[in-house]
## 1
Amino acid sequence: MNKKNFLERIKGQLIVSCQALPNEPLHGSDYMAKMAQAAKVGGAACIRANGVEDIKAIKQVTQLPIVGLIKQDYKNSPVYITPTKTEIQLLIDAGADVIALDATTQDRPNHESLEELIRYIRINSQCLIMGDISTFDEGIAAVEAGVDLVSTTLSSYTPYTKDRVIPDLPLIEELAKATTTPIIAEGNIKTPAEAARAIELGAHAVVVGTAITRPQIVTKQFCDEIKKTTDRLLQSKQ
Ligand SMILES: CC(=O)N[C@H](C=O)[C@@H](O)[C@H](O)[C@H](O)COP(=O)(O)O
């Protein structure tokens, strides 16, 4: 996809992440395509999706641009978001418009470096590249390595960012001030107000997943909050 057109299309907009792994109740490309359709009706400008089947199904029903990734675990490697050329080639063949890949500085034992993966995408496709990072330095390094967009996806997930605030609005703000490469606010954004705040702090667009497309987690948040109150009420009566 043409970079200028894509960036204009998503500027100040919501990208909905529609993902359900095999252990989740809504796993399956039919469910994810329906989720994406609902997201489109609600105004989403783009969909982030995991895996060839989901990407193809979502593209067909929504015709929205797709940020594609493949979550793949490799032995002894902490990198699982599009870790190697194998997943990249599958995403190119599936028709992803943007390829999201881990751009952290974590070890990649026996895998290609980030620079090699970027070169491979440039040579073999027109896909744009979204670098998923967890720290400010990783964001700047990803820009220098040549990604088209930087996303804060992995803040609070890498071992060295476990204590970051969530959502990581300070990271979004710092990166947006430091670079002209578009910063995508992603990870643990739970409310419309947080999404709007991310835009105010300089994010080019916002990705929301769980709060929209993982109903089992949203349900649990309601249940937990209600339980806290019922427990408190019960105690005050004793
Ligand atoms: C850390 C990781 O593996 N994140 C994944 C990346 O694609 C997805 O599981 C998230 O749902 C996505 O980043 C959106 O974030 P949230 O669901 O918090 O709105």
## 2
Amino acid sequence: MNVLTVNIAEAGYEQDKPVIRDVSFYVGAGELVGLIGPNGAGKSTTVKALLGLLRNVKGDVAFGGGERRCAYVPEQPVLYEYMTLWEHMQLAASVHELDDRVFRERAGELLRLFRMEQDRDRLPTGFSKGMQQKMMLIIGFMPKPNLYVVDEPFVGLDPRATKDFLTLLNEERKRGAGVLMSTHVLDTAERISDRFVLINDGTVVAGGTLADVREQARCGADAPLFDCFYALT
Ligand SMILES: Nc1ncnc2c1ncn2[C@@H]1O[C@H](COP(=O)(O)OP(=O)(O)OP(=O)(O)O)[C@@H](O)[C@H]1O
């Protein structure tokens, strides 16, 4: 079963000025798909298009797996200045209609995991960049969705937080959640992704497993993802 199927013919910010073209891929239940490509290639535009945040989209996007469809973890934290971490978490819980017992249980686990228990009643404007990013992850993980769309998670997180995040993501994948992860950190992407979608200049230039991508890039059987990326872009 696919938790996400994307068939975008065209999408962009202004009418008749498409930024991406012919972008098609899927994310199966339990799969992690790495969305990779150079700066300005169209990764964020693809993510915005599939989340329904762009007006000029031609094509179809289908979410599978029933309720609690999708959690989006943005690269730039989105936060309310006058709300504490705990209040942000409560807001997310109410948006996703979690009942209070489930909310408290998950909220406690997530605060513990990301070592933010001491910070729950603080305003996030006083948090470091990494702490703000952890806050976005906590909020994203709370509803236990079928699909996670995660934008560049590795840049602000320290090694310990990265490991905790990946551990949690793996647990979620075992439960059947799929993940679409946009990133520039290719060695990590290579290690954790089941498949890749490589975007360049607004369109998909390669896709599939690492072996598929190596073949499409005419790279050798041991070539790292970085070399394939370089060859294809
Ligand atoms: N709000 C916007 N309005 C108009 N054009 C935009 C807007 N945001 C991005 N673009 C254009 O869309 C193209 C693709 O940008 P996009 O942000 O999707 O790239 P990206 O692959 O996410 O890059 P990066 O790795 O740098 O984040 C670029 O040419 C960019 O200038």
